[in-house]
Amino acid sequence: MWLKDGKIISLEKVEGDVSGITEVKNISGVLNYDRMQSKAFYFQNGKWVDDHEIIYLPDPEIDLIFK
Per the domain annotation, does 8 fall within a domain? Predict the structure, then answer.
């Protein structure tokens, strides 16, 4: 994992996947101070392919306190 341009990037090596996936990458970051975005990609047959994107929203019932 590493930080780049304010985002957290993780890269995982994959072995033995029957569909040809050899790496999985995730890029996460904060959007507009109150949401978090996570995007996943996989490297399959020599190219990066979009997998999924998740937007995490705050729970209005909980007050977040950062220390």
Answer: yes
